[in-house]
Amino acid sequence: MTYGAPDGAADLPRYLAAVRGGRPASDELVAEMARRYEVIGGSPLVARTESQAAALERALGPGHRVAAGMRFSEPSIARAAAALVAGGADRVAGIVLSPQWSDLLMGGYVRALDEALGDVPHRVARSWSAEPLFIESLAGRVSEALGDDQEGAPVVLTAHSLPRRVFETDREYVAELRATGERVAAAAGLDGGRWRWAYQSAGHTPEEWLRPDLGEIFPELARAGHRAVLVAPVQFLADHLEVLYDLDVAAAAQAQVAGLAYRRIAMPNADPVFIAALAAVARRTVPEIVRPGARVLPA
Predict the structure, then answer these.
(1) pLDDT confidence tier of residue 128, bands split at 50, 70 and 90
(2) I want to staple 60 with a disulfide (CB 3.0 to 4.6 A). Which of 34, 41, 64, 162 is the partner?
(3) Does 114 fall in a domain?
(4) 149 in a domain, yes or no?
């Protein structure tokens, strides 16, 4: 399960209102988001997630079915759940494609799956950011992107920014984001002086968002004498707007202004190591006991 994406420019007002809890987006915001989606040629998130689902089904093997469900677009979580049940599923594991867990931010996925499955035994995986194969997948991409770098280009590990009010409500989630970065850096062999932490993709609201922002890091690195930078998101698992625009367009332009050559790691998408991580999460999440009429609540 993941956020989803608008089905073209005409669907943007509906999509943005859904993401914003029913509050319509301003004409200015709709126009700006339409511009960004046009720049990247539309979001591939739904297609990427469906390819991840297909790869996970192959990895799990016979007796397993996997469907992709979107919270704010089609194919919906309800549609995905119905397809699994129609295909004979008697137990369901739900995986939110965000390795770090927050009841505040991810509770909507749990409620959607509860409503869709009713008495079909099911459980939603909570935090899986410490899953060894997940860390291995990201660390491998960092090492691959650095290659034989002899200049010691710094690595900036990023996560989606949050309003400070959310941070004050759910500090454990923010701590888990940073802990993921520390695990990835250690697995990639980065010492403390080789990597930095930053937030990206702050929202279009006047309230305070978490810092440091990625764009603030680039001038600091340039002043320290660096000529290149590698950006590595530790929260995003597929290509989508926050990667293809926020990083590949906006952040790349900020790095160029600062005088830095810019690179980012490839997203996990359907990388076999990452899919193996999802398989491990799925296997330990599926309810173990099935009783007629019993309901296994998310744990």
Answers:
(1) very high
(2) 64
(3) no
(4) yes
* Residues near 31 by beta carbon (within 8 Å), at least 6 away in sequence: none
Distance CA 207, CA 205 (A): 6
Q: Which amino acid is it at 175? A: A
CATH of the domain at 140: 3.40.50.1400
In the sheet with 228-233, reading across from the earlier edge strand, the strands are 195-200, 155-160, 228-233, 261-264
Question: Amino acid letter at 110?
Answer: V
Q: Is residue 59 part of a domain?
A: no
Give the global pTM.
Answer: 0.93
Q: What is the DSSP letter of 11?
A: G
Residue type, 216: E
Measure the CA–CA gap between 294 and 119, rounded to whole angstroms. 6
What is the model's pLDDT at position 14? 97
State the pairing for strand pair 155-160/228-233.
parallel
Q: How many CA atoms lie within 13 A of 292 on its CB side?
A: 0
Of residues 54, 60, 81, 86, the one with CA closest to residue 70: 81
Q: How many domains does the chain have?
A: 1
Helix (H, G, I), strand (E, B) or coil at 95: coil
- The answer to whether residue 227 is domain-embedded is yes
Q: Could you tell me which of 137, 68, 65 has the C-alpha nearest to residue 109?
A: 68
pLDDT tens digits, one per residue of 142-174: 999 999 875 689 999 999 999 998 888 889 999
Q: Are 254 and 200 in contact (CB under 8 A)?
A: no
Q: Which domain holds residue 227?
A: 132-264
Q: Cis bond leading into 212, ω under 30°?
A: yes
